[in-house]
Amino acid sequence: MRYIDIQAVVDSIPEEIRDTLQAVDDAMSSKSDEDKESTASNGNSRWRPTKPYLERASHRKCWYTESKNSGSLYDVDHFRPKAKILNRDGSIKHWYWFLAFNPINYRLSSQISNRLNTNPDSGHTGGKGKHFPLMEGSSCATDVGELDQECPVILDPCVEADTVLLAFQADGRPVVSAHYTDNQDAKYRVEKSKLLLNLDYPTFNEDREHLYNKIRKYIERGDRYAAEGNSALEDVKDDLRDVMKPEAEYSKAAECYVRCFRDRTWVEELILE
């Protein structure tokens, strides 16, 4: 998960699109609850024009998984769900109607992360859907001004402190970063996000495992060149730089994998550049 500066993304959206969203947003507060629900559930034509700018911010990668699929149309996900979610007693659990037309709440998502899917390996249903759990003791925001007081469970690519909690094993599976293994909240959030964002979905794991094996081969080649004093070592370094570039698919996983080999002086030098 690579950090996305959401304010920079919002600023990149043309003014006419933002003005259209703002006009609908401004009108929401005076609507009845029924009209708020209807307006939000039928608002796709309003927020769909923002998608090219969300794509541009991540080099057309899913913001949650860093997966890239030219055959996917992607979803404009509302990080905080636009739908009214009720408790069993009929009371409102959360309802972020005030963010339905506010682009600070938009995230570019693969359909596997955004929609409910059954993980064929675990048999569990994952995907974000309308789920938006909060950490125990967290209050639920009822307006934009209260968002900073919330403590969501789901990792947010637009919060830099969230993006550093993830690491990846050689087989592609996501885990909590070694720096946070003693942090129970971090471990909990990573475990829940693995399911709620389908970070642990087999196709993502397979892709990351393939990336690890690719990087391992680069390292083995680099070790030979380093031992020989071969100038071709610079070519290997360039290959490793390429897989870690922000535009590269699974680039944060690539950074994690390259760090696994930092006991080599030449790799440590590359990381410290």
Provide a brief overview of the structure.
This protein has helices at residues 6-12, 15-28, 33-41, 44-47, 51-57, 111-114, 160-163, 184-196, 202-228, 233-244, 251-259, 265-271; strands spanning 75-78, 85-86, 92-94, 106-109, 117-118, 125-126, 166-168, 174-176. With 273 residues, the chain is mostly helical.
SSE layout and pairing:
Elements: H1 6-12, H2 15-28, H3 33-41, H4 44-47, H5 51-57, E1 75-78, E2 85-86, E3 92-94, E4 106-109, H6 111-114, E5 117-118, E6 125-126, H7 160-163, E7 166-168, E8 174-176, H8 184-196, H9 202-228, H10 233-244, H11 251-259, H12 265-271
Antiparallel strand pairs: 1-4, 2-3, 5-6, 7-8
Helix pairs in contact: 9-10, 9-11
Give the DSSP E fraction (strand runs of 2 or more residues).
Answer: 5-15%
Number of domains: 2
Largest sheet: 2 strands, antiparallel
State the secondary-structure class.
mainly alpha
Distance between the termini: 21 Å
Would you mind describing this structure in some detail?
- The protein is 43% helix and 8% strand.
- It is elongated.
- It folds into 2 domains: 6-155 and 184-190, no CATH class; 203-271, no CATH class.
- The chain contains 12 helices and 8 strands.
- By secondary structure, it is mainly alpha-helical.
- The relative contact order is 0.11.
- The strands form 4 sheets. It has a two-stranded antiparallel sheet. The protein has a two-stranded antiparallel ribbon with strand order 2-3.
- Helix 9 (202-228) crosses helix 11.
- Strand 7 (166-168) and strand 8 (174-176) form a beta hairpin.
